[in-house]
């Protein structure tokens, strides 16, 4: 069965069509131009992988172009199509000149084709005819096939998907959209569809694993590869990715054909169809796409465009900066729209999201004339939108569109604009890529992007190409607004087209490393074979100056030198290794870099700055410095929200519209948020902390950042393992930190988050917050809960609570222990077990086991462990200690995809610490016993300051001595006593007692802190409890204990409060955690608990006030401290300890 009823055949050698570009100049209000081509779209930029060993076809170029002039009886029409196929074009009445010229070659040959035709000339129909041709061939031969359509933006993919799904599914071509907006969990499901629509970035990630069985079954049947808007290859940020995707498909095609020939079958190479609006060097693309199939180039000028575009370039004086210039253009827009729009739909391209919104709001408030439906209809349209600001604009007939809006809002805006309900649509460059909208007038409002850099030439052409689409209008107008200085440049852009250049050389290190890691490049000759198969080599021969090459006979030598230098750079950074006979093999780091798609710059950053001792916050800060985050610029309108998140507490109004206070991010950025790294650092923690972000644009970026962060963290885990020899001081702490962070990135929660129920089905952030507020902060708490209680908290109906409790009851409960044998020398083992008898095997859990010693050495690292690896009796690993002189061994079990299931254990190997007994009154102003005095019992051999833990353990019975363990080696004391200024009204006194003989003895030890040996003749009952925290003194008074005569102290002379500042090492983490347990609070506080102030005080190394008598002799270097005014605070609402002074007088 043939798709065409006619038997006429087009000669391949005369199929190319061309005519000189039509240029017409004129000028009035700026510069008026008529007739020029435009282009269409772009897409994101990820990492690379590859293709190679394909030598450039030896075919003479350039291809000769012949202007086609068909006889009347040879005219190609819809009637030539088979009736079944004709039904796929219900709205097409007749083929235009471009479609007729290319259609015969499409349908009557199997050649690859490259088409350069102006926007609005019907290039999409050319792609559809190629699909119909393949469908007919497959029916005749009863063979399977697959078609891949690549477009630079998701919006263009979505538009084509909605159209083709309706038209082609009845014909047997099932469609699937495979891009960022529509995730496919199982890539094997792609095998169920015949047409896959994707972006270059998504397809690049997919084809990386081309040798995987699930991916191979999708790639093998591909017979047609459609590339829309191929001029994207000229984009400096995204062009290399599209070139990489096409090159890899050529490599896969060559390999499959070779296998088919070796098996005695007939090779069926992929047919490439590439279309664009502005690729003047179409011959270069045809030369590049040639393989076993011939490639035919077609070029059409503006005379073949079905709609006529009138172009204007208007210039204005520049402002102090580009952003102010763009803002000033708002006041020019109403007059420009009224002059050129003829009351027809207008599309305004703005530089940034903020500019899009501000421009739309300005036009909505202006008195500009606009023809739109009545107020009732606009009100109904706006009521269906989620964004409130957008609702206000739509009610006035103006709308805006950018990637920060909800997907549903974007679709509604596009549909309303197509229906003619909106007079003006302000948008970013996302709509300049092939999306058909009924815009009569297109305005390019300023010619720089959100980063302050000028748009590329192709971007400008794409934008003005949105004017006057054939489906909606016979003509259109495009207006470019720029500065006086750029006037000449944009005049040239709209009258001429510049050849498309390769951008592959900008990503050469990543690309070569990926090819080597995949085994495609294995020696120096293979490097040259690979580089000759790229579009880069085609353009380097045609335009060597652009790539800083000499050209001519020396071109290959210079290209080889460029590749050699790149290979040497990879070797210097330990990504590859050279072996005998010029063999090139990847290192473990090189494979990691390729697998995790990291840039060469990020790789060097991590290798140079990783120390092996990073804490959780330090590791997070290091990850956020990766170059992969560079596209997430900190916009001016986002700084308020980001700085609010960075505070100690934030108003929920900033996040989700509530009125309550919420805690800020866990690790604060030290300065105000103004850079990309600070923004990423803040957003990641906002996600981990379950903080809602009301700004949808930030919310979208945060989701992408977390996904990217997981990839970088996964790479660091492998890097630490592969490069362990580089870390002379060990890397256990860094490994624990990054493994924990990897868990956080994958679960989107901190490792100790109280919102861990968010991981359960049907429970989102808000419901998890409700459960956390009721104390359901662990899985054990959920297991122990009554299902009806869960339903009451969440306001759900039965059996919701039963489902939650039953599911949590099926989660594993891990145990981990490090054990020491009694043998000599002793042996050590680590055992992991699972103690939940009700564990559900259907719940998949993957975890890592990390064991290290106190000197930061890794003793055991087991990654990607599963429940199947743990028998009933547990799994045990032997541990080998290289050094027995260690204090402890720590073991951690960290789940990779669950928060709340981790466990750890520490085995201490050192002797028991020295015991010192004392009695110490707790801080009487905050704890029950307010009348006890301080009594410190000191020994001659040991002298210590009472610990925080001891202070917290004071009970009503002060006669009981508390025991605390101290190690003299781990404690260091200050030799100076810091003294506050005399108090004006000191009525409450607190003392430390000691034996005077001990004091005499201690005078011989100058390094003992004087706060530990202060003496009074006898304790005195305080008149009233001390209930204040003093502000740290700006200066200190040093006391020399050698001149103190404690025995001569008179009680009447007691008048000065002393404030002691011990060093940071005095307080250990477990002591601070013990004293500030919430259940120990006994008083009813107001907004700010005094315990918060106590913690703040300890952080500044303060000790609470003790009042003593002045010593008879003061040191000569005494420094008087300026007197400070005291003020009283009620209800224990003390505020920050560093800024509050309270007195005890009433």
Automatic annotation (TrEMBL):
The biological processes this protein is annotated with in GO are: meiotic cell cycle
| Ranges where the Helicase C-terminal domain occurs | 332-528
Instruction: Identify the InterPro entries for this entry.
Output: DEAD/DEAH_box_helicase_dom (IPR011545), Helicase_ATP-bd (IPR014001), Helicase_C-like (IPR001650), Meiotic_Crossover_Helicase (IPR052247), P-loop_NTPase (IPR027417), Sec63-dom (IPR004179), WH-like_DNA-bd_sf (IPR036388), WH_DNA-bd_sf (IPR036390)
Give the UniProt keywords, A-Z: ATP-binding, Helicase, Hydrolase, Isomerase, Meiosis, Nucleotide-binding
Fetch the SUPFAM superfamilies from UniProt: P-loop containing nucleoside triphosphate hydrolases, Sec63 N-terminal domain-like, Winged helix' DNA-binding domain
Tell me yes or no: is Hydrolase among this UniProt entry's keywords: yes
| Annotated signal peptide | none
Q: Which Pfam families match?
A: DEAD, Helicase_C, Sec63, WHD_SNRNP200
Protein name listed in UniProt: DNA 3'-5' helicase
Identify the species of origin.
Anopheles dirus
């Amino acid at each position: 069965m043939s798709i065409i009823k006619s038997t006429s055949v087009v000669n391949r050698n005369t199929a190319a069509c061309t005519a000189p570009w039509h240029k017409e100049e004129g000028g009035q209000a700026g510069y008026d131009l008529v007739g020029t081509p435009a282009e269409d779209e772009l897409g994101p930029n990820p990492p690379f992988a590859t293709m190679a060993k394909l030598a450039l076809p030896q075919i003479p170029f350039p291809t000769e172009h012949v202007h086609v002039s068909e006889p009347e009886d040879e005219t190609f029409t819809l009637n030539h199509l088979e009736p079944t196929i004709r039904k796929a074009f219900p709205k097409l009445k007749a083929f235009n000149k471009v479609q007729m010229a290319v259609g015969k070659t499409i349908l009557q040959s199997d050649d690859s084709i490259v088409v350069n035709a102006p926007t609005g000339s019907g290039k999409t129909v050319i792609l559809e005819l190629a699909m119909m041709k393949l469908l007919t061939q497959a029916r005749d031969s009863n063979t399977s096939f697959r078609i891949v359509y690549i477009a630079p933006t998701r919006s263009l993919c979505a538009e084509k998907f909605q159209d083709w799904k309706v038209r082609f599914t009845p014909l047997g071509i099932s469609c699937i959209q495979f891009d960022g907006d529509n995730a496919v969990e199982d890539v094997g499901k792609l095998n169920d569809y015949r047409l896959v629509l994707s972006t270059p970035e998504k397809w690049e990630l997919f084809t990386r694993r081309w040798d995987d069985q699930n991916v191979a079954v999708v790639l093998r049947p591909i017979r047609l590869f459609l590339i829309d808007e191929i001029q994207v290859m000229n984009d400096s940020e995204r062009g290399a990715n599209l070139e990489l995707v096409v090159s890899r498909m050529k490599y896969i095609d060559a390999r499959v054909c070779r296998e088919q020939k070796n098996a005695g079958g007939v090779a069926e190479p992929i047919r490439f169809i590439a279309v664009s609006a502005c690729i003047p060097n179409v011959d270069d693309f045809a030369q590049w796409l040639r393989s076993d199939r011939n490639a035919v180039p077609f070029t059409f000028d503006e005379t073949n465009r079905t709609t006529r575009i009138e172009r204007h370039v208007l210039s204005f004086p520049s402002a102090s900066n580009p952003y102010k210039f763009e803002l000033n253009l708002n006041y020019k827009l109403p007059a420009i729209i009224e002059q050129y729009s003829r009351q027809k739909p207008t599309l305004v391209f703005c530089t940034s999201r903020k500019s899009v919104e501000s421009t739309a709001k300005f036009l909505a408030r202006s008195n500009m004339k606009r023809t739109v439906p009545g107020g009732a209809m606009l009100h109904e349209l706006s009521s269906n939108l989620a964004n409130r600001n957008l609702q206000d604009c739509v009610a006035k007939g103006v709308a805006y569109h950018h990637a920060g809006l909800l997907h549903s809002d974007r679709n509604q805006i596009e549909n309303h604009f197509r229906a003619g309900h909106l007079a003006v649509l302000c948008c970013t460059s996302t709509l300049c890529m092939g999306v058909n909208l009924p815009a009569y007038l297109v305005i390019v409002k300023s010619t720089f992007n959100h980063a302050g850099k000028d748009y590329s030439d192709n971007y400008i052409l794409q934008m003005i190409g949105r004017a006057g689409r054939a489906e909606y209008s016979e003509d259109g107008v495009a207006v470019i607004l720029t500065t006086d200085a750029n006037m000449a440049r944009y005049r040239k852009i709209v009258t001429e087209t510049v050849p498309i250049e390769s951008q592959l050389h900008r990503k050469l290190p990543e690309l070569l490393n990926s090819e080597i890691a995949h085994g495609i490049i294995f020696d120096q000759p293979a490097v040259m074979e690979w580089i000759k198969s790229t579009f880069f080599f085609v353009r380097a021969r045609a335009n060597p100056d652009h790539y800083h090459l000499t050209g001519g006979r020396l071109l290959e030598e210079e290209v080889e030198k460029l590749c050699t230098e790149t290979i040497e750079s990879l070797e210097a950074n330990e990504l590859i290794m050279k072996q005998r006979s010029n063999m090139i093999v990847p290192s473990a780091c090189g494979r990691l870099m390729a697998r995790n798609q990291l840039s060469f710059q990020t790789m060097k950053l991590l290798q140079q700055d990783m120390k092996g001792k990073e804490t959780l916050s330090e590791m997070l800060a290091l990850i956020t410095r990766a170059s992969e985050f560079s596209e997430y610029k900190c916009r001016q309108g986002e700084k308020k929200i980001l700085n609010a998140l960075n505070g100690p507490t934030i108003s929920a109004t900033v996040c989700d519209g509530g009125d309550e206070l919420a805690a800020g991010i866990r690790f604060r950025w030290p300065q105000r948020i103004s850079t990309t790294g600070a923004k990423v650092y803040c957003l990641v923690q906002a996600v981990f902390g379950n903080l809602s972000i009301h700004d949808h644009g930030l919310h979208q970026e945060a989701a992408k950042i977390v996904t990217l962060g997981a990839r970088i963290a996964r790479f660091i885990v492998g890097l630490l393992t592969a490069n362990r020899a580089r870390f002379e001081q060990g890397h256990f702490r860094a490994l624990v930190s990054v493994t924990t962070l990897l868990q956080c990135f994958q679960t989107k929660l901190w490792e100790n988050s109280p919102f861990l129920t968010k991981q359960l089905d049907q429970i989102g952030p808000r419901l998890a917050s409700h459960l956390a507020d009721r104390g359901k902060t662990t899985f054990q708490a959920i297991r122990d809960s009554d299902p009806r209680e869960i339903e009451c908290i969440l306001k759900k109906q039965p059996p919701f609570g039963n489902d939650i409790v039953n599911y949590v009851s099926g989660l594993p409960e891990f145990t981990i222990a490090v054990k020491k044998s009694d043998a000599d020398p002793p042996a050590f083992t680590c055992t992991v077990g699972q103690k939940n008898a009700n564990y559900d095997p259907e719940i998949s859990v993957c975890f890592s086991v990390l064991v290290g010693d106190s000197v930061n050495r890794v003793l055991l690292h087991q990654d990607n462990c599963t429940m199947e690896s743990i028998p009933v009796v547990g799994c045990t690993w032997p541990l080998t200690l290289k050094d027995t002189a260690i204090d402890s061994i720590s073991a951690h079990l960290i789940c990779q995809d669950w928060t709340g299931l981790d466990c750890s254990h520490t085995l201490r190997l050192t002797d028991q610490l020295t015991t010192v007994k004392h009695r110490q009154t707790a801080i009487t102003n905050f704890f029950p016993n307010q009348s006890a005095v301080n009594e410190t019992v000191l020994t001659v051999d040991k002298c210590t300051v009472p610990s925080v833990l001891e202070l917290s353990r004071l009970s009503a019975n002060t006669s009981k001595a508390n025991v605390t363990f101290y190690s003299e080696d781990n404690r260091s004391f200050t030799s100076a006593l810091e003294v506050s200024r005399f108090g004006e009204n000191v009525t409450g006194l607190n003392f430390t007692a000691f034996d005077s003989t001990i004091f005499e003895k201690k005078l011989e030890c100058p390094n003992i802190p004087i706060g530990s040996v202060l003496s009074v003749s006898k304790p005195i009952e305080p008149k009233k409890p001390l209930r204040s925290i003093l502000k740290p003194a700006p200066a200190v008074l040093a006391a020399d204990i050698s001149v103190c005569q404690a025995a001569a102290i008179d009680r009447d002379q007691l008048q000065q409060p002393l404030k002691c500042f011990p060093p940071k090492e005095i307080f250990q983490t477990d002591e601070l955690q013990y004293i500030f347990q919430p259940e120990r609070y006994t008083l009813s506080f107001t907004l700010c608990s005094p315990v918060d102030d106590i913690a703040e005080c300890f952080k500044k190394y303060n000790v609470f006030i003790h009042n003593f008598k002045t010593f008879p002799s003061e040191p000569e270097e005494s420094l008087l401290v300026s007197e400070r005014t005291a003020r009283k605070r009620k209800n224990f609402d003390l505020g920050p300890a560093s800024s509050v002074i309270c007195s005890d007088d009433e």
